[in-house]
Amino acid sequence: IVYDSTTITAADDTSVVTGFKPNYVKWVNTNGVMIEWFAGMADNTCIKTAATGARTLETTNKGITVNDRGFRVSQNATLAAVVASQSVYYFAEV
Questions:
Q1: Would you say 24 and 38 are in contact if contact means Cβ atoms under 8 Å apart?
Q2: Residue 84 and residue 76: Cα distance in Å, rounded?
């Protein structure tokens, strides 16, 4: 997914339709930030790996929520998973 230079706000999110409910989602942007969600985690949470390699469990900074047809990635400045003028790559599996 390629984002244009439009300013992205904390209220923005990206929805991805996969056609199935994922048990695992991996989302990596070209800034080097990776977030992951595993089945059993709460909605709107994730494990974040920063470009420095530091890993954190994000429970208050938004994250990934799955549904029967795909998933949604929320954004805020701390999470930095959705960034204007950047590309992201994702992997979702059952």
A1: yes
A2: 12
With bands split at pLDDT 50, 70 and 90, how would you rate the model's confidence at 4?
confident
Q: Hunting for tokens 């390699």 — which residue is that?
A: 53
Q: What are phi and psi of 70, to 5 degrees?
A: 160, -140
- pLDDT tens figures, 40-51: 999 999 999 999
pTM over 0.85: yes
Nearest to 58 by CA among 49, 67, 70, 71: 49
Q: Is the pLDDT of residue 11 over 90?
A: no
Nearest Cα neighbor of 56 from 88, 25, 79 is 79
Query: How many other CB atoms are found less than 10 A from the CB of residue 74?
Result: 22
